[in-house]
Amino acid sequence: MRDTRESRLLLVLLIAIAFALITVDIRGGEDSPVDGARQAAAAAFGPIENGVSSAVDPVGDAVSAVRDSGERHDRLALLEKENAALKAKLGSDDRNASRLKQLDKMLKTAGTGQYGIKGAEVIAIGAAQGFSWTVTIDVGANDGIKRDMTVLNGDGLVGRITTVGPNTATVLLANDPDFTVGTRMESTDELGFASGQGDRPLRVELLNGKAEVKKGDRLVTFGSQADRPFVPGVPVGVVSRVDPSGGDLTRTLFVTPYVSFTKLDIVGVVVQAPTKDPRDTVLPTKPKPVPTPTVTITITPSANAPLDGEDQQQ
User: Cα separations (Å) of 67 from 73, 74, 82, 269?
Assistant: First the structure.
């Protein structure tokens, strides 16, 4: 397109329309008028994201095959091919071992909490509808996934489902600034609300402004009405700092989440809530305190030391 006055006006108009749509979407929240367009986009682009994810390894193998093909049958080319195959096998084995470990940990968490889950794989990060902390998973409506279902992994709360396509779904992560979940303190049962702060710790507002809280205390999800969007008892995180300000109606805490949101791979969507609140049973076992070694110093008098009551001769 030529750089003309008309083209510049068209560009300005498109930018204005884009900002207007973003504003309408943000103010609309879950009832946003563009939600239908988001679902259509998920249906259209979800299979593409899934296909790209599954095609990465074959593409790498094809490149290696082309590189090593031809008439080069000398010893050097053969060694290069054998080394490449060995590295690819080791890399694949390491990745599979890691994923199996994640899956095993998630199944144990789900079993402890009696959550009925649908396993899924993270196939994309981000979303077309805005700048937020989201991921795309490879299960959707055809797998029984619905909006406002809890998502977890072996460590704890990952987020909730926001948009569902036929074969994919979008998960709003718990560290997103628009994310809020009801929480309950371990043992004391103090209730609060946790909100995401991006790459910073979660911010929790306890309803009791005089609640006794200390660093190291742990929180789980309180649960929602009819278990949507959150089921109870999912580990949230550990208190890392307590706001010292007092006299307020609420108490502010900063909580380090159990889940590492930049290392997500295998997750589970809770498709069936537990019949009984698991309370604190899903929390990991607390590490045993390491005893502080005690050093005892014993002073032994030398043979030439003066006795008590006697002056040392000069």
Answer: 13, 14, 13, 41
pTM comes to: 0.66
**Burial (0-12, 13-18, 19+ Cβ within 10 Å), 72:** exposed
Containing H/E element for 126?
Answer: strand 116-127
List of residues 6+ apart from 60 with CB closer than 8 A: 88
Strand 157-164 with 150-152, pairing: antiparallel
Three-state DSSP state, 271:
strand
Residue among 206, 302, 275 nearest 245 (CA): 206
Q: Tens digit of pLDDT for each residue in 202-250?
A: 999 999 988 899 999 999 999 999 999 999 999 999 999 998 876 678 8
| Whole-number Å distance between alpha carbons of 180 and 227 | 15
Distance set, CA 269 to CA 52, 146, 181 (Å): 22, 10, 16
SS3 per residue for 165-183: CCCCEEEEECCCCCCEEEE
Among 183, 160, 145, 133, residue whose Cα is nearest residue 283: 183
Surface-to-core class of residue 153, CB atoms within 10 Å of its CB (0-12 exposed, 13-18 middle, 19+ buried):
buried
Cα(221)–Cα(109) distance, rounded to whole angstroms? Answer: 14
Cα–Cα distance between 50 and 66 in angstroms, integer?
Answer: 25
Per-residue pLDDT tens digits for 266-284:
999 999 999 999 999 999 9
